[in-house]
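Comment on both lines for my students:
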Amino acid sequence: MPVPDQRDPELTRRILTQWLDRHLPGVRIPTIETPQTSGFSSETLMFDATWDDADGTERHEPFVARVAPAHYQVFPEPRFEEQYRLMRILDERTDIPVPPIRWYEPSADLLGAPFFVMGRIEGEVPTDMPPYHMDGWVTEVPPAERTAMWWSPLEILARLHSLDAQEFGLGFLDQPHWGRTGLDQRLNYYEHYLHWAYSGPQEVALRALDWLRANQVDEPDPPAVLWGDARIGNVIFQKGAPKAVLDWETAMLGAPEEDLAWYLFLDRHHSEGVGSPRLEGFPSPKETITRYEALLGRPMRHMAYYEVLSGFKFSVIMARVGQAMIDFEWIEQANDFPYNNNCTQLLAKILGGLR
């Protein structure tokens, strides 16, 4: 969902050139792409840089600057620096394919918010608007390529879930002020988030929350590192192969089932949830769970529970999106979108099928 933005491209280019000169002396930035709209979570600035090495050789490299949200927040507590720290560790110490993470600027003085710079990876990303099952380049590729697009990120996810959080210094992803690691933290945080996101009615989301608390399951294994937004729409692909995984701002510690359920729920939302047939080539949820059990080396537990959790979390996010649409006067104050949308309708259907 875009947020109106009026950043001056020329001023931004000069500011970034001056800042980047600290790291790449003599750098030139010929042009910079500053979108007319910016995402809730962060703003993306794309630019090419040119500089001379010590031996006089001219170098060129494409970069992306991610700027923390400065105009409108989708999350009550943007964890921007944590996202940078995590991506830097993944880039430098693991085989998880993230863009090359270069530099971080903690001050808001330059661009109005902290930002970090990373290398730009070329490729294509499945779209959310329109959902990739309905339109866009994913509908045009062969079914075999879609199959590869489905399985390959899951292999990356399994490698992520197998990391030792303490060994890699990722304990900062824990959020003990929300409760015990895992489900306690998630339910407490998203309950807080729901009331912060939108002050109107939330019948379906609150019904889901009541069910989740009444039926809370055990998480017997040590907490794993979770992506938090595991879905093919956060992967840069080249001919079905994942070149980089993106958007780590909701990374956390918990059970792998939570990531897998989100992966499945977002795909279900982008097909059944929007009234579109699922494209040929994408494996079924049952096939996906079976394959992931083999990748992780243990059974997946309580997947129906984590599907409800995924629907609840996404309904909270959609409530915030709806509030933004009201604040920007795109819809009327009385519009029911914040609590009656494709996500809440799918969640209500799932809740209605529970025994």
